[in-house]
Amino acid sequence: MPVQIPDDSDFSSFKDQCLSADGWTSRYNKGGVTVWCRDQESSTVQKLKMRIVCKDVMAETLYDVLHDTSYRKKWDTNMIDTYDIGRLTVNADVGYYSWKCPSPLKNRDFVTMRSWLPLGNDFLIINYSVKHPQHPPKKDYVRAVSLLTGYLIQSNGAAGSTLYYLTQVDPRGSLPKWVVNRVSQFVAPKAMRKIYKASLKYPEWKRKHNPSLKPWMFPEQNTLPCINVSELTLQRADSLENIDESSVSEEKTNHSDDEET
User: Fold this and answer.
1) Within-domain flag for 206
2) In angstroms, how far is CA 224 from the centroid of its own chain?
3) Ranges for the START domain (predicted)?
4) Are the beta carbons of 206 and 62 closer than 8 angstroms?
């Protein structure tokens, strides 16, 4: 399958999904965070949408935090590794991300094409999984598939901003029901609050760490090697190993310290 770099209509469609209530069921609403889910034909591929109102955080700051991989290593404690592979255009690149799953579930990783677009008071970042010939699946990870994942940040003026996160991921594994429930009831809200807290601290951190370096805003600063889109193919889930972890009980898992309340 050929890979296509998102155009304006793709960003517009993503924004509509973030703002629309049709077909979404609220699963969590507490402390300024709302989580919705959408029933899918596949029980393993869940579509989740989250929203958090970020008082005292400007939309531009949130946008910087979500782009800044150096800072992500400071606040995203579930992340194992992340790095940029190469750039496609001034607002599209390819990157790698891996994250910890509660033991004994296997850790997951992704290779995704990411695109971004600032639109007045809106800032959008979207990604989906691709195959890159030099970054095949690793033996110690399950290569998961992002069908569509992204962020919509909307400015609320001087009052701050609102962050939406929408994700549809195939974990490439038959996960137990408790994992799916835990994600919507606990992991997702925790992740949204973590981004908010990280954004409050970002301006001070950035002042001490290359304050003028923002290649997502200034393409001339981007030193990544160029990739031609023809080098990439769409990552199809059915070409990857699908493991059965449905029998793993919650009692046997070790949740990271970061996940505990």
Assistant:
1) yes
2) 21
3) 22-204
4) no
Domain span at 251: 8-259
| Residue 176 burial (CB count, 10 A) | 17
Decide if pLDDT at 253 tops 60: no
Domain count across the chain:
1
Could you tell me if residue 1 is inside a domain? no
Per residue in 158-190, pLDDT (tens digit) is 889 999 999 999 888 777 777 777 777 888 899
206 φ/ψ sector (left φ>0, alpha ψ -120 to 50, else beta)? alpha
CATH number for the domain spanning 188: value is: 3.30.530.20
> What would the pLDDT profile of 106-145 be if each residue is shown by its tens digit?
899 999 999 999 998 999 999 999 999 999 999 889 999 9
Cβ-based burial of 111 (10 A; exposed 0-12, middle 13-18, buried ≥19): buried
Going by C-alpha positions, the residue among 154, 158, 151, 160 that lies closest to residue 54 is 160
- Which H/E stretch holds residue 14? helix 8-19
Across the chain, what does the average pLDDT equal? 90
Tokens 């004994």 found at:
104
Give long-range contacts, CB 8 A cutoff, 24+ apart: 197-200: 197/75, 198/65, 198/71, 198/74, 198/75, 199/54, 199/57, 199/61, 199/62, 199/65, 200/56, 200/57
User: How far, in Å, CA of 159 to CA of 155, rounded?
Assistant: 8
Distances (CA, A) of 59 to 65, 76, 123, 203: 10, 19, 7, 12
Dig out the tokens for 233 from the structure: 């193919």
DSSP E strand boundaries for 10-121: 25-30, 33-38, 46-55, 79-89, 92-99, 108-119
Nearest CA to 141 out of 108, 105, 174, 96 is that of 108
